[in-house]
User: Which sequence fits this backbone?
């Protein structure tokens, strides 16, 4: 018996994809994005491609040589959520300098 996939709520969208792991270690950066979103009163959750199925993957997400993971938010929160995720990405890039 296979793993059952979660059904995507009608008004839920992906705002940020990323690898589930980096060099064999869980990618905690996506967890940080979810936490920042929740701090901004934007409900968010993580899901893997196995959870949602390739048929529900957004067309703009390109699959690389990694297992993808996705940050989901309610469609009405998407614009604010993308702004929060972008700020987190800017901080990460800056810290890597």
Assistant:
């Amino acid at each position: 018996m296979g793993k059952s996939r979660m059904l995507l709520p009608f008004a839920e969208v992906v705002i940020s994809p990323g690898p589930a792991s980096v060099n064999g270690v869980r990618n905690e950066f996506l967890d940080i994005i979810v936490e920042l979103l929740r701090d901004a009163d934007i409900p968010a959750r993580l899901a893997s491609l196995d959870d949602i199925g390739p048929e529900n993957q957004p067309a703009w997400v390109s699959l690389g040589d990694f297992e993808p993971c996705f940050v989901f938010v309610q469609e009405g929160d998407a614009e604010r959520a993308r702004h929060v995720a972008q700020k987190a990405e800017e901080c990460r890039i800056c810290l890597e300098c």
Observations:
- The CA atoms of residues 9 and 85 lie 21 Å apart.
- The longest strand covers residues 12-19.
- The mean pLDDT is 78.
- Residues 78-96 form the longest helix (19 residues).
